[in-house]
Amino acid sequence: GAGRVFRHRPTFSKLVIVLAASGGGLVAYADGRTDDSKESSQVAPKKKVVVLGTGWAGTTFAKNVDTSLYDVQMISPRNYFAFTPLLPSVTCGTVEPRSIVEPIRKIIRKKNEEIKYWEAECFKIDPKSKTVYCRTDIGTNVEGHGEFPVTYDYLVIAVGARVNTFNTPGVAEHCHFLKEVEDAQKIRRSVIDCFERANLPDLDEEERRQTLHFVIVGGGPTGVEFAAELHDFITEDLAKLYPTIQDFVKITVIQHGEHILTSFDKRISSFAEEKFQRDGIELQTGFKVVKVSDKTLTIQNAMHEDSSIPYGMAVWSTGNGTHPVILDFMKQIGQEHRRVLATNEWLRVAECESVYAIGDCATIAQRKVMEDILEIFRFADKDNSGTLTVKEIQDVLGDICIRYPQVELYLKSKHMSDIVDLITASKGDIQKEGIELNIEEFKKALANVDSQVKSLPATAQIAAQQGNYLARCFNKMRDCEEEPEGPQRIKELGRHRFLPFRYKHFGQFAPLGGEQTAAQLPGDWISIGHSTQWLWYSIYASKQVSWRTRALVISDWTRRFIFGRDSSRI
Ligand code: FAD
After folding, report:
1. Which of 188, 317, 323, 365 meets the CB 3.0–4.6 Å disulfide criterion with 223?
2. How far does the centroid of ligand 1 lie from the alpha carbon of residue 497, in Å?
């Protein structure tokens, strides 16, 4: 009905007043707008928004977008939302797979207006014809294949990332990944397989040792959490069930850098390394895996010397790579030199009208960020002297941190440059006004920062905040149809219609096993230990997408406390 063009359906008395005119109508709306381009009897059809992906970013967008304004269609090969932070718990049966997933249809059914969902994978994006080409393996069309095109007015790309193997030979064939629920289920079966295989008669000691050698490649949050989970599973449950072979078990984490958990504060990274040492988890830092065969991993040190490690099961967790559909799209729009799809601060793909990208598949272009930072810097240098006082530098940094939390994260991390040390050291002691910093030097320091601050980390927190932000922008889009980013900065008024996306960091957790977790919370607050584990339990329970999954997850945790984990291979 005519009311569909309104966010709130108007009552009949407020309804559209039609001033008839021959050949074309002038439509006057109750809120004072007029539109002479439409036939009097016509109502502008709702714009079609196509969302690719049912992960953190896509689902949050769909949950928050106003479906009375848009015809929303979701496309994803996964017909459910998965609570990825609990995936490591699924690998060892601490939590069951179905406890962390929610059917997407249940989530989108909550809307008054329908959101359509197609279970398919997008394999090509054509921005010129505003069409995405999809493929499904669960059915065929009249032409006998499972491919179909979907047109859009606006496209929201939220396809996440895939595992990055860095083209290392043998990884795809022999290693497990930990990205999807299916991966976690496969790992769970494989761990039990290793124990059953090592327990078979007629195996020599060396074979049992190799079969029970679990190798994790990558010392980031996922790799470390999985190693901790596996250690708990083995010591708390499997050791009792396989007493004769428990002494052959070994867990090794291979990390390219010098330390594990480098995205966390140094204190957390050191605590985790010490805890792993106490638990007997071996850390091989400073090594790169260069080849994987069915029985051994070849690792290389900084001197390019190779050595080989026999293993029973290997999990590859070394960061994110880009989906082929995104690589192809980036080529079409001239972004082939980039690793991840770049957007502006309003999350729109710079080269493409009407295409937005959120979550792990996108990053806010950094060149613009650095230009902005220098702009703030030049603005602070009011007398054009080329130098700033400590007070001015503090102000500049304050401004930069508000606009770019990733810079703040960097400043707070352990890799502070000398210049930042100088500034922090003088914090609160404004008397030292005599210290001045040369703008050129500061630029050099920022260039260093830039290499560390390439992009925000790929987390669910960011993906969800971007989905929410973009939905709110779409809900206001009717006012800003021409310029989705809002009008140019209205300097005199000092405001944007849409503020650019700003990430709000609520902290991050690193579960380390043995009912101990480390947390890095806003305000540089570090907490490690058993009490933090309870904080982790409460936050993760509260963040579940539905009461059903919340109840299931809590009951899984309780079941594990009482009965331990299940080691059946089903
Ligand atoms: P995803 O959630 O990965 O969703 C991508 C969606 O796109 C999926 O539905 C997928 O099926 C779909 N898709 C893929 N290809 C196509 C295609 N061609 N066409 C259509 N649809 C497609 N973050 C945290 O903040 N805290 C944590 O504790 C944490 N723990 C993690 C633990 C693990 C094991 C993993 C793997 C990740 C963890 N993360 C964590 C990171 C977090 O999961 C990601 O940052 C987040 O999932 C990104 O959201 P997204 O929507 O961009 O992608």
Report:
1. 317
2. 30
ipTM value > 0.90: yes
CATH of the domain at 253: 3.50.50.100
The answer to whether residue 440 sits within a structural domain is no
Taking the alpha carbons of 55, 61, 66, 69 in that order, is the dihedral positive or negative? negative
Number of domains within the chain: 2
Q: Is residue 73 part of a domain?
A: no
Distance 143 CA to ligand 1 centre (A): 33
Q: Does ligand 1 lie within 6 Å of residue 179's CB atom? A: yes
**Contact (Cβ atoms closer than 8 angstroms) between residue 121 and residue 134:** yes
User: Beta-carbon neighbour count of residue 204 at 10 Å?
Assistant: 8
Q: Which range is most confident: 28-37, 77-86, 103-112?
A: 77-86
Q: Is 460 in the pocket of ligand 1 (CB under 6 A)?
A: yes
DSSP 3-58: GGGSSSPPPGGGSPEEE--TTS-EEE-TTS-EETTS-TT--PPPEEEEEE--SHHH
Hey, what are 570's tokens? 């089903």
b/e burial code for range 545-559 (CB count within 10 A of at least 16 → b) = beeebbebbbebbeb
Domain that holds residue 21: 2-35
pTM: 0.80
